[in-house]
Design brief:
By secondary structure, the protein is an alpha+beta fold. The protein has helices at 7-16, 22-45, 50-91, 98-124, 177-180, and strands at residues 128-131, 136-143, 146-153, 161-164, 173-174. Among the domains are: 57-125; 129-180, no CATH class.
Length: 187
């Protein structure tokens, strides 16, 4: 039988941090939600010209590489921990070097934070991280009143493709003249 934590218990645990002041807890939750919604709206409102996107690309590439390395470490440690858990289960128990396992877990946690920080920094610029496995970034760009996404993949020297907001990577098209001469209309 699977026992699940009741939402009420989780709620009460959170409320206990604020003592009996339930209003304070609710106020802080509302404040966080507003801040998150505001952050999303400002990030989505930012658009880039092709030249602006090309200018910040080296910085973003560095952040993206950092996030990808951290993700690789996370996956490596997760695999090791899964293997260890499997060995323990199959053997009905085993001796485990707790210090080494804890050290690897700490490395994983640090890598996870590095990845989150790098992605948050990229997102803060208004650029969208679309795929961390292949290193795919999209730069919102306004061309002739329409928002498109300038698409860049890790390994490409510069931004050479774009796609519509609903098309995705499979719908990539080469940069055309209207994008090259497009002027930035919003910030």
């Amino acid at each position: 039988m699977i026992v699940r934590k009741r939402p009420r218990e989780k709620y009460l645990r959170r409320v206990s941090r604020y003592g009996s002041d339930l209003r304070e807890y609710r106020r802080r939750i509302r404040k966080r939600r507003r801040a998150h919604a505001e952050l999303e709206s400002t990030a989505m409102a930012r658009t880039f010209t092709l030249s602006e996107a090309q200018t910040i690309l080296p910085t973003l590439e560095s952040l993206l590489r950092s996030a990808m390395k951290a993700k690789a470490l996370i996956e490596e440690v997760d695999g090791e921990m899964q293997s260890l858990a499997s060995r323990i289960f199959i053997n009905g128990g085993t001796l485990v070097n707790i210090v080494a396992a804890a050290r690897r877990k700490a490395e994983r946690d640090k890598a996870e934070q590095r990845a989150k920080d790098a992605i948050a920094e990229i997102d803060a610029t208004g650029v969208q991280v679309k795929d961390l496995d292949i290193g795919l970034l999209d730069f919102p760009c306004e061309v002739e009143g329409e928002v498109i996404l300038l698409c860049w993949k890790l390994g490409e020297e510069k931004i050479t493709h774009w796609h519509g907001t609903q098309e995705g990577f499979a719908g990539r098209k080469p940069i055309d003249e209207r994008i090259l001469r497009g002027q930035k209309k919003s910030n």
